[in-house]
Design a protein that fits this description.
Blueprint lengths: L6 E2 L2 H12 L7 E8 L5 H14 L6 E5 L2 E5 L9 E5 L4 H10 L11 E8 L4 E8 L5 H19 L11 H12 L2 H13 L17 E8 L1 H13 L4 H17 L3 E8 L5 H4 L7 E8 L6 H18 L4 H12 L8 E6 L11 E6 L8 E6 L7 E8 L5 H20 L13 H10 L13 H11 L4 E4 L4 E3 H17 L7 E5 L5 H12 L3 E5 L5 H11 L3 E4 L11 E4 L20 E6 L9 E5 H14 L16
Length: 639
């Protein structure tokens, strides 16, 4: 590196480097812009335009090197940075190509960190796609590309001299070095120490380690945008202030936390020269917000306005140092923020001679749980709202709801800025209707003419050889279930069991015999009680007496344990008499009884009718959208 001047990375660049090292070999730091021209384009002139832009802006020629464990940058005068022309031959093919190029990983060390692609169409139009590593370009730089491309291309097209605008990124590097050793640095440090006397809430969504992301895009129409602009003008606040206040209120309400932090990118270009310089200036710092629920909206807007003003005054303090300070103070490894909000002020005006559409393309990755970006780059009078989010952390439908809720909060603030924050609703009218009316509209018509055991009889006829029940040791088909239940039902009839009688069922463990016993009981018109073998004997005796059970169906191990009533050992039942039992019962007749455990006193019994049981079974059909088939299996885990 002899003869080449090396520069340290700036603080904004160090933040990008940290992300690069943490999420290795991903395009997470790709910054992608696109200009879609709406007229015939001379591709050679366009290539020349891009070459001039690279030549005039040293940041676009940045090279990163690593020496002795430290990262440095330098700016060669000439670089081999070929501009690739991609021919688009098929309809809609460009979207696939744009996605592929946007997600193409850019190697950081000693490599071209700025790529221009020209997408050439058969009709003679063209797009310019810029893919930059974030360490050399921010969103402001992307908007500068667009303006410069239009300006220089027109000069070349009209054979005019191209004005040289040559501001160097090295000037900002020098300023950064001076800042670190200045009194202003100490003032800013004290400000952030005051801001972080308490550790704010930073996590609002489920933690997701994957950074693969998605983007949802919405347009706030001209009518709503006009109302927002008018409100902000009348209340002497910026649109950014209104949206930041709205976002803060929303996060506060969904987390029930009144001390929060939101990442806020700062342009970090304090004068005309800096605003005319390409490179990485933007730094995202956490805006620390306290929400007082009793504040009126207009008071909270004033608070956010003042908060942002102080924030901008002291934002140059390095994020890297702030993160270390917070880690040491609160003993935490948590990031200073997990959600971020940005309002892009950059505007690209079409010239009368050259019409184009600009867009900000997504690289497919998101380092934060949620990023909300608002812009009107084309100066159309509408607001474009982008939500970038981790695909495994938040659902697409939830993003749609978040957008609707934020606009609803703004609508309430505009209508009455004297409203207290505590009175602001975050659930939209549409959601309220869904929750209060649609979700509660559960009325369904089912065929309850057949009782449950009669419905099972139909299934036995339709699927005799299908498996009906499986327990720990055995399994049984529907035909076998029907035969055994009929045999037991005939024995119950022989024991003078009539409609309305109560039968107790007790086995050591839940098994196939439990199901057989329930079905047999219902077949004869009786009602059943399932007894849990783990209950104390005295409690079981009380239930048997209180329910007036006539018979207990059990097994050898428990036979005659409760000899005050007739015991039937299910394993002694002969299958010879398995004729179908068809005792007709009523839907409002009692099907079974359930008792409380009795741990706080005597067990209390409740009767459940056949219609109750039918409704319970029907609810499964409703939940599963009536898609239950003979291939499905149900796991019974209740006692």
């Amino acid at each position: 590196m002899d003869g080449i001047k090396l520069y340290k990375l700036t603080n904004p660049q160090k933040n990008i480097l940290f992300t690069e090292q943490y999420y290795k070999l991903t395009p997470i730091n790709n910054v992608v812009g696109r200009i879609k021209f709406q007229e015939q384009i001379d591709v050679n002139l366009l290539k020349k335009t891009l070459e001039i832009i690279i030549e005039q802006n040293d940041a676009l020629r940045t090279r990163i090197v690593k020496m002795d464990g430290e990262y440095y940058q330098y700016f060669p005068d000439n670089v081999d940075n070929p501009i690739e022309v991609v021919n688009i031959n098929k309809i809609n093919e460009e979207e696939k190509i744009v996605k592929e190029l946007s997600k193409k990983y850019i190697q950081l060390i000693d490599n071209n960190l700025m790529r221009f692609y020209i997408l050439r169409y058969e009709n003679g139009t063209a797009d310019v796609l810029s893919v930059s590593h974030h360490i050399v370009a921010d969103a402001w730089t992307v908007s500068m590309y667009a303006k410069e491309i239009i300006r220089i291309y027109q000069c070349l097209k009209e054979n005019k001299e191209v004005e040289t605008i040559n501001y160097s990124y090295t000037e900002y590097i020098d300023e950064e070095c001076k800042y670190i050793n200045s009194n202003k640095f100490e003032i800013d440090k004290n400000y952030w120490e005051e801001e972080y006397k308490e550790d704010p809430k930073t996590q609002f969504f489920d933690i997701c380690n994957s950074v693969k992301g998605k983007r949802e895009y919405f347009v706030v129409d001209k009518n709503k945008t006009s109302k927002i602009k008018e409100f902000c003008k009348n209340n002497n606040i910026s649109e950014q202030c209104l949206f930041m206040a709205t976002f803060s209120i929303y996060l506060c309400k969904i987390s029930s936390n009144y001390n929060i932090a939101i990442g806020m990118p700062v342009l970090n270009r304090k004068n005309f020269k800096a605003k005319s310089t390409m490179g990485m200036f933007v730094e995202t710092m956490p805006l620390h917000v306290y929400i007082n629920n009793n504040l009126k909206c207009k008071e909270f807007l004033k608070y956010i306005n003042e908060k942002q003003f102080a924030f901008l005054k002291h934002h140059r303090y390095p994020y890297e140092l702030l993160q270390k300070d917070i880690k040491n103070k609160f003993n935490t490894n948590q990031k200073c923020y997990s959600v971020a909000f940005s309002y892009q002020n950059a505007k690209i005006k079409n010239s009368e001679e050259m019409k184009c559409i600009t867009s900000w393309e997504f690289n497919g990755y998101c380092p934060d749980d949620l990023q909300m970006h608002i812009s009107d780059m084309q100066n159309t009078g509408t607001l474009n709202v982008y939500y970038d989010y981790k695909e495994n952390g938040i659902e697409k439908e939830e993003i749609k709801n978040i957008h609707k809720r934020l606009l609803y909060i703004i609508e309430q603030i505009i209508m009455n800025n004297n409203m207290c924050i505590k009175d602001i609703e975050i659930i939209t009218k549409e959601e309220q209707k869904q929750i209060l009316i649609d979700f509660n509209n559960t009325e369904k018509k089912y065929d309850n003419d057949l009782l449950i055991h009669e419905r099972i009889n139909k299934i036995i006829q339709e699927y005799p050889n299908e498996i009906a029940v499986i327990d720990e040791k055995n399994k049984i088909t529907y035909k076998e279930l029907g035969n055994k239940a009929n045999a037991l039902a005939n024995e119950l009839i022989n024991q003078n069991i009539n409609i309305g009688d109560v039968i107790a069922i007790l086995f050591e463990n839940k098994n196939i015999n439990t199901i057989i016993s329930i079905l047999a009981t219902l077949k004869v018109g009786a009602s059943f009680i399932l007894l849990y073998n783990g209950l104390p004997d005295e409690r079981i005796k009380f239930i048997l007496k209180d329910s007036r059970a006539k018979i207990i169906i059990t097994e050898k191990a428990l036979y005659d344990k409760f000899d005050e009533i007739t015991n039937i050992d299910i394993n002694d039942i002969s299958l010879e008499n398995n004729m179908l039992v068809e005792v007709k019962n009523k839907a409002d007749a009692v099907a079974y009884l359930i008792y409380t455990s009795g741990t706080t006193g005597k067990p209390k019994g409740t009767q459940q009718t056949h219609i109750n049981l039918s409704n319970f079974i029907n609810s499964f059909y409703n939940i599963l959208d009536n898609n239950i088939t003979n291939n499905d299996r149900f796991l019974s885990i209740t006692n």
